[in-house]
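FW: tagging you since you asked about this chain on Friday. Here's the raw sequence from the shared folder, copied in full. Didn't touch anything.
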Amino acid sequence: MLTDFYQTERYQLHEGVLNATVKLNPQHDIFKGHFPNNPVMPGVCMLQIFKELSEQGLNKKLFIKECSNVKFMALINPENHSVLDIVIGISETEEGFKIKASVTFDTTTALKVSALLREQL
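HL: got it, structure written out here
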């Protein structure tokens, strides 16, 4: 969905835990508007990355049904921190797929979220 926004450098799914490293493109147009001369990763874009990585691991097309416990703990400036480490715990329920995801750069946790993803029909 976000063409040339990021690239996956590492991806490993083992026993319901996905570990990935992504590299952001600091030159992407989205950062020019959010915010000029002070780029910040939009939270919705981070949620989209979580969804896309989960889709890859499950080999299913998904949509985000709901999010809970969304905690933004640090701003992600792609000019200073373009490499992000992502951990997503995925479990299947009757409702869909529950994820608990976090993103860190260096030793800083930037975001934690719990979400329910459902398969697109």
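FW: Residues 6-119 form a domain with the Thiol Ester Dehydrase; Chain A fold (CATH 3.10.129.10).
HL: agreed, and The chain has two helices and six strands.
FW: great, closing this out.
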